Request: fold
Amino acid sequence: MTDAAKGNAAGAGAARTDAAELVRRTRELLAAYPPASTDRLDFLRARFDAGLAWVHYPVGLGGLDAPRALQAAVDAELAAAGAPDNDARRNGIGLGMAAPTILKYGTPEQHRRFLRPLWTGEEVWCQLFSEPGAGSDLAALGTRAVREGDGWVVNGQKVWTSGAHNARWAILIARTDPTVPKHAGITYFLCDMTDPGVDVRPLRQITGEAEFNEVFLTDVRIPDAHRLGETGDGWRVAQTTLNNERVAIGGMRLPREGGMIEPVAKTWRERPELRTHELHQRLLKLWVESEVSRLTADRLRQQLSAGQPGPEGAGMKLAFARLNQEISGLEVELLGPEGLLYDDWTMRRPELVDFTGREAGYRYLRAKGNSIEGGTTEVLLNIVAERVLGLPAEPRTDKNVAWKDLAR
Reply:
């Protein structure tokens, strides 16, 4: 930690509710590390050490124990100065899912080892959760982790792994006890993707890209020091990850008329010859729904300042998927024959997931996955019904049956 960062940490208490103090600290950082003459990575590391990475995190872990809402004051000051950012979209799983889980359940050693290079983007993360036989019913997963000496040996297959081809680390859940009910025998690990037993293979999607992968794990050795949480408590730890995932997908920060509605509205304004009364009515309805969803996401993020995300994120993710699919469908219809054009079917493995990139045909096809990734619509409807609305749970006959005795 730099001398300036140590001084910042020592007075962190004064900054907890004061945006002006955070602005002062940010300007001190800019003065000590001028963006125009400082290496990008050096600047990001200094920002983390100064507690200005995510201000609501603890002192020494990239934050100042300040309210989450004050991050905007820091970001605005840095943007105005032309400071580099950490290219958050490239490491969305790490920042949005792995980091809060490591913070909540990790040991001090794990905090120190993983959070800084995660935030700076030096180490990209992926998520090894879903399996060919355990997608919607994630707790039925069969990847095995067997204790051997001071570590674990993992064998199995994961699927639909976004960004695994770019990842240095993965959050992994595996079955450590097949003799207990499925939710009770799971443990959560941090997996080194450079282990020779990790085999990443591309899964080409309907868009032509392969942002997803299948991952085969063969005798992958994970030290017990990279277990997150208690043995057998992986399902509870994973809920923190999944709740954050839904918020990250459905609660993205957008400007007014941002996201999928932006290109449609732009085309409507610039191409009056394409307009019809029926399309106008549909566009107005979806524009209003997009704005309501954006404001609801802002409200949800404000609620997060008081604690961890809850099941409400499932509702936001549901709205995100439905709106993206309806808006992209409207855009293709608005453009007529042009909407059927597609620029490039070349197989590629992108560095980031882009829900709204490229042209209308790409957006239409990519949006089809929004109701599957991050929790299927059917599963999320159950979560909203049971955990938000308090409706009776669906009958589950396998809750008290050992995983090894389940029909497969």
In short: The longest helix spans residues 277-304.
